[in-house]
Design brief:
- The complex is a heterodimer.
- By secondary structure, chain A is mainly beta.
- Chain A is built from no helices and 11 strands.
- Chain B is globular.
- By secondary structure, chain B is mostly beta strands.
- Chain B contains no helices and 11 strands.
- The chains are: A mainly beta, B mainly beta.
- At the A-B interface, strand 5 and strand 10 of A face strand 4 and strand 5 of B.
């Protein structure tokens, strides 16, 4: 089955700096890659996702890049703010076909701390 | 709209006891999921239901059973709780299986002593 590795496990930055979180996946058939943010004591919420037919997607201060050849994708947060402090999870799934169709496999999570 | 609602929010069980976690969604979603969250291990899929009337095992199904009661409700049962099942449990739902946003419930913190 799919295996998603996420790094780093913890990341500490100063307010205004950029933060980058990287994930690798094992199944070359995976083609949907969402990112979820989980604030302390809260539920995970989708912040951005990308499909394998594009290499990059941006939404204000966050962006995701995908390298299908290398089987890795990254989350980029620019101009970080204290409210960006949270746990971030990457995930991968296949949009169609096979026994693992549709099931999200999550990475281990990255604890991001933004210091004022 | 309440979204995805789970009950209870907290629970302490003794080893060997049973319990059912309830989940309901009001977004008319077809697919529902149960995950457990443990430190350093991300979110692991226990069981899922692609649509009403179907259920399938996920990554870590041992020790659990599920019921898709109707389109809205998807319950998770622990028949004989073990300390290894101490975790935070999340129910989620999505319009369809794969490629769509998963909406999560607020979680259930379960401790088995």
């Amino acid at each position: 089955g799919e295996n998603v590795e996420q790094h780093p496990s913890t990341l500490s930055v100063q307010e205004g700096d950029s933060a980058v979180i990287k994930c690798t996946y094992s199944d070359s058939a995976s083609n949907y890659f969402p990112w979820y943010k989980q604030e302390l004591g809260k539920r995970p919420q989708l912040i951005i996702d990308i499909r394998s037919n594009v290499g990059e997607k941006k939404d204000q201060r966050i962006a995701v890049t995908l390298n299908k050849t290398a089987k890795h994708f990254s989350l980029h947060i620019t101009e970080t703010q204290p409210e960006d402090s949270a746990v971030y999870f990457c995930a991968a799934s296949k949009l169609a076909g096979g026994t693992s169709y549709g099931k999200l496999t999550f990475g281990q999570g990255t604890i991001l701390t933004v210091h004022p | 709209n309440a979204g995805v609602t789970q009950t209870p929010k907290f629970q302490v069980l003794k080893t060997g006891q049973s319990m059912t976690l309830q989940c309901a969604q009001d977004m008319n979603h077809n697919s529902m999921y149960w995950y457990r969250q443990d430190p350093g291990m991300g979110l692991r899929l226990i069981y899922y239901s692609a649509s009403e009337g179907t259920t399938d095992k996920g990554e870590v199904p041992n020790g659990y059973n599920v019921s898709r009661l109707n389109k809205r409700e998807f319950s998770l049962r622990l028949e004989s709780a073990a300390p290894s099942q101490t975790s935070v449990y999340f129910c989620a739902s999505s319009v369809a299986l794969g490629g769509t946003e998963a909406f999560f419930g607020q979680g259930t913190r379960l401790t088995v002593v």
